[in-house]
Amino acid sequence: MTGTAGKRKELTGRQKKKIKLILLLLPFMLLISVFSYAPLFGWSYAFVEFSPGKSVFDSDFVGLKYFQRIFSNSKDFMLVMRNTLSISFLNICCSVLPAMFAIAISQLRNKRYAKIIQTGTSIPNFISWVLVYSIVFMLLSSEDSALNIILKGLGVITESVNPLGNVKHAWAMQVAIGAWKTLGYNAIIYLSAISSIDQELYQAAEVDGANTWQKILHITVPGLLSTFFVLLLLAISNMLSNGFEQFWLLGNGMTWDKLEVFDTYVYRMGIKNMEYSLATAMGMFKSIVSILLLTFANWASKKLRGDSIF
User: Could you tell me the maximum CA-CA distance found in the chain, to the nearest angstrom?
Assistant: First the structure.
């Protein structure tokens, strides 16, 4: 009897603990439901003929009309998808840079200097794209920009150059600007992962006579792989999300054929022309493709590495 009563008390204690944890989660679940799931009701506008001031229930049902319109202008759509996927692929190729930068910072012996570098390189992430455009324009675009003054002074060029108007290097220029803006901030994640690596591993490696490069290669890099692959999977799932502000501001008439990405295409075709049902259909298409990409990347990771994020 005593043993049974003890088990009942233990079960009751576990149940109370579970209830407390559920109650602790409820506010966050409510926030996610209100701001992430409730707005999904707006997807219904993709299937009706939207009119301002008219309820979705009173609008005419049109089925998949607007989804067909996405692909009806196949030439423009294929051009946009080419730009979007190409820039995303280049960004994924550059995703190793924050990890390399974090390793470099972690190897600095002067920790105060390392903090200054980390803070200084993180600041651009908090600068708006409008200010970034102004800085880049002053440094690179105008005839009397800093780049042209320096190159002319060194005798490298005789005529002014405009990197932002160069069609051949449009993708590389935008990827470089984006990498500069986010490099320091993204490195923070890897610095956190490096700090969580057991320091006894480094001490044991030193005892075995390992040099700095060997410790980085055999301890630091393997310790960062799990973090890198999680971020890589998320980057693959967001291949259609290049961002809007960067390309809308830094694009121009000379490079627009190379810099119109999916987000700017949605704005131009849907929002700017006030075709909200079309814009909603494009948003749904983007979400569905992102889910499929994440599922495929997760499946590939599980097959190749034996590990996945879900």
Answer: 97
Amino acid at 121: T
Q: Record the pTM.
A: 0.85
81-85, 139-143, 161-165, 299-303: least confidently modelled range: 139-143
Indicate if the pLDDT at residue 143 is higher than 70: no
Q: Please give the C-alpha separations between residue 172 and each of 91, 176, 223, in angstroms, as whole numbers.
A: 10, 6, 30
Average pLDDT of 17-33?
A: 88
Residue 61's DSSP bridge partners are 48
Coil, helix or strand for 158?
coil
Residue/partner pairs of 224-232 with CB below 8 Å, 24 or more apart: 224/99, 224/102, 224/103, 224/190, 224/193, 224/194, 226/193, 226/307, 227/189, 227/190, 227/193, 228/95, 228/96, 228/99, 228/190, 229/301, 229/305, 229/307, 230/309, 231/95, 231/189, 232/92, 232/95, 232/297
Region for 53 from its dihedrals, namely left if φ exceeds 0, alpha if ψ lies in -120 to 50, beta otherwise:
left
Q: Give the CA count within 13 Å in the CB-facing half-sphere of 293.
A: 18
**Residue type present at position 29:** M
Quick one: pLDDT band at residue 6, thresholds 50, 70, 90? low
Considering only CA atoms, which of 127, 229, 121 is closest in space to residue 185?
121
Averaged pLDDT score across all residues of the chain: 87
